[in-house]
Amino acid sequence: MHVGRAMVPRRLSLILSLALLPALAACSEGVAPPPPPLTKVALAAVVPKPGVAREPLARSVDELFADKEAGETRALMVLAGGRIVAERYGKGYDRSSRLIGWSMSKSVTGVLIGMLVSDGRLRLDESAPVPAWQRAGDPRGAITLRQLLQMRSGLRHVEAGDPVYESFEVRMLFLDGRDNMAAWAEEQPLAAVPGARWNYSSATTVILSDIAARALAENGGPDQRRQLVGEFLRTRLFEPLGMKSAFAEFDAAGTLVGSSLIHATARDWSRFGEFLRNGGAVKGAQLLPRAWIEFMTSPSPRNPGYGAQLWLNRPQSDGDEMLFPGKAPTDIFACIGHLGQYVIVSPSQKLTIVRLGKSTSEERKKVLAHLAEILAQFPKS
What percentage of the chain exceeds 90 in pLDDT? Predict the structure, then answer.
């Protein structure tokens, strides 16, 4: 009996030791504990068969929404091969929420100009048809449509200046230029020879919007400009793409605020990204020549990281870091807007990703890191 009693605690000790082995192994050096289980909300954001491992994708999406250092994510869409494989919204937002694109609007304006060039209403390499620049001896008459699209007009435009109320985009949108934004942008003098220097500028895209209005409405007044440009966008772009929520704002002079103020749901922004990914086609119909999308996604002569109203995944001429350095295909291009709005297109992966939200400059670095993790889960096709 004495021997039997001694065996009981020994067996109990052995059982407890075996039970603790997984925990001890997890705590050993170099081995991380398993991640916590996904919530129902996190898993529901990804379709059952996304084409890649479902749980890692759902976890990457969840981490983007949960990361306070990445600011506020209001919507995320991931489309693979044209199919929605992930979709999630922040608190207070859903698939019907129309969200501002800010500078993603520039890419829509780039497409608008491409359609007018394709129609023969505008010429890419002729003097930009701005009446104020056509006076004899005005050096701005040398500025071409191509140079405006590639942000190398040479005009004295100061984006993101310090103090903020001296920034040209702020003055144009909200202060002394707000009633006639194009006239305000067009009256600025040259700071460089046209074509010689790259300078990102919202004012430049508003000039493009004015050129579009002149091509469609000639010398029409504000109401006619607003009506004809709005109708053109609706019938030639938004309706064919199924972008039923898309809404564009105009200033008091009837000029499209094509630099900043186009709104749409996350699903409709993803439709625009898919249109770009498919070379200007939707459902087999070529709405815009493929050559124009190739132009928009080709490096500007003065900045390899920028095309024509689109950002590229290449080094920036001003020293800013590329979108995904060493972490994603170099054929990626993107519509990018203030406070962290992104439509990211990866042709070689057949991917379109939309992220909408509110993030500071520092927080956007975290946003891009999370988006890079999502991109990395999809192979090149």
Answer: 81
